[in-house]
Amino acid sequence: MLEVLIVIAVVIIFWSPLVMNTIGPFIIWRTQKIPTRVKFVPADEAAFMEERSGEFKNYDSELAALGFSTVGSSVLLDTHVNGHFRLYWHAELQIAAMVVSTVSAAEEFTYLEFTQLFQDGSVLSVNNAGRPEAYPRLAFKSAFQFSEVQSAEILLSYTQKIKRQIKPNSVPIDYDLVSGFGGVEKHMRRESDELLNLGFVNETIDEQGKRSLTLLGAFGMTFRSVSPGLRIFSYFNQRQARQMLESI
User: Fold this and answer.
1) Where are the domains positioned within the chain?
2) HEC-encoded secondary structure of 42-77
3) 183-195 burial code (b ≥16 CB/10 A, e <16)
4) Which of 103, 120, 170, 213 has the highest local Cβ count within 10 Å?
5) Shortest CA distance to 115 belongs to which of 80, 150, 162?
6) From first to last of its 248 residues, what are the pLDDT tens digits of the chain?
């Protein structure tokens, strides 16, 4: 989720790969922070959708046709990147979906993510983002990236196939619709806590609800955000996802 916004912010601040891989991590260490206590403020649905791109609206229509209902929409504003989020839930499949659009002075891109939470606390995430996540692999989360897939129906079918393959006996749990984005906020706090365990962030949460990066975290996230690391991680992430499908 927000890890993609962090990638974009890093790229905007330091467009040169040479600068990014040498000086960049030290400046990121000082300037970038990880959202930990996040509060999504509900947006006016009509106004929110009116401002979205054609791609965003196409995903919205596809999800509705697949039986997903809208939970809500929200906007998170940051210094360099604004994130626009629309959350959906499928009661029968017990799968959440989110369409995310990141807008900056340099670019705008949109992606779709399907997420399923299980009783054992594990999470399955399947997305078609064009960039790899800035975060390292987290113990509780199995993530798969299919950047070439632009169809919500196909991406959903991949999600279901992967679930049956790697979590055949795992029981999914319902999303608390009354909480709106509350479940997403808890997930983001959990991600931050896991980064703390990995030594990527400091324990202190500031008045804005964010944790500062450690030097290890700054180097790790910078390497995933710019070339050649970005290309390397993107290649291996997508190869892993393809191999998973081929094994089913």
Assistant:
1) 40-198+223-246
2) ECCHHHHHHCCCHHHHHHHHHHHHCCCEEEEEEEEE
3) bbbebbbbbbebb
4) 213
5) 162
6) 555 555 555 555 545 566 666 777 888 888 889 999 999 999 999 999 999 999 999 999 999 999 999 999 999 887 667 899 999 999 999 999 999 998 876 678 899 999 999 999 999 999 999 888 888 899 999 999 999 999 999 999 999 999 999 999 999 999 999 999 999 999 999 999 999 999 999 999 999 999 999 999 999 988 887 888 888 888 999 999 999 999 98
Nearest to 200 by CA among 133, 126, 130: 133
User: Which structure tokens are listed for 18?
Assistant: 């040479």
Cα–Cα distance measured from residue 120 to residue 142, given in angstroms and rounded to the nearest whole number? 13
Burial call 114-145: b when 16+ CB within 10 Å, e when fewer? bbbbbeeeebbbbbbbebbbbbeebeebbbbb
pTM: 0.88
The CA radius of gyration of the chain, in Å to the nearest whole number, is 17
